[in-house]
Design brief:
about 375 residues; alpha+beta; 2 domains; 10-stranded mixed sheet; 16 strands; globular; lipid metabolism
Length: about 375
Amino acid sequence: MEQRGEDPTKHAESHGDFEEALKGLIDEPGAKHKHLSIHSPAPEVITNAWLNNLIPGIHKLEATYHVGNWVATARGPNPPKVFESMPLYVRLGMQALYHGRRQAQLLASERVSKLLREQSIKQGKAFDSTDNVLEHIQAFVKTYQIDCAELEKPNIADYKTFNEFFYRKLRPNARPVDSPSDPSIISSAADCRLTVYPTVEKAKEFWIKGANFTLTSLLQDESLATSFHEQGASLAIFRLAPADYHRYHSPVTCLVGPTKNIEGDYYTVNPVAVNENLDVFTENKRDVTLLSVPQAADATPLSVAFVAIGAMLVGSIQGTVQQGQEVGRGDELGYFAYGGSTVVAVFPAGKVQWDEDLIINSSVPIETAVRVGEQIGKFV
């Protein structure tokens, strides 16, 4: 344990090099098939040498136990809750890499930022490869129990690369929107784990712990942040886990506005980092798209900022709509290539009432599993 007042750089290399640990979590040397280790079924997970040295025998535990993030798996009062599945060695490795002042300082260094960027680009290229595609998809489907029956192309042999499967399309009507004729309803933008907050301040209190998180830093636009009334803006945070369908959709009926591409880092968007003192959302690569929501006759349209945020191992954020295009609630806006990812939707202060069960869960805080098109709130 680090002692209070201790120089956080004093033991920067203790328990091995953290950079090598990160490389090991992504691409363990000696793996039979590169890039399979973190998504292999539990009994087949490759042993991570760095963590095994830190915790002898961990490879025996990882084959049996999966742990993860606390998630409500259904809507309504007193929902069932589970820990989202994650191989134990990956979970502990992420804790070791992201938890604490020493690690935060290391991750803030240009050296590690460069490593994360290089590894993410490397993985993107690897998953665009045609090597071992079917085997990789089979392992992924087995690990995460993907329901291929709902896919536009249900035969996994039809996918030429793993990335093509990762941003797979669903068959028509697989995600119907709730109450499609009611313009007041706001829908989930993704299959995801969701938290919602009536204000930025509430989000910082319960969920986002980055010291420098502000709406201005998220949007990289002080004027736009001010138009949302900065601290009072409402937020919906849609976290996509690797198993999720990775196309994202409009939560509202709107006119698509301009998109700003913001270059940045590739930290994980897992709560293990977001709930630490790391500025994940405001440092990561992201696209900010303005959505203009029509109001009653002669009223000024309402603006929503739709922020697609890349993450560790995400190769790209790809929009599939154009500025000036009209889209309905539930229509596709784009997709993420390989990796866990997040969308943050920003609404002007006082304009949204989130569903009560989501507010209760988010204040615990617990994420709630929701799907594209599902109602999550209403305009007021």
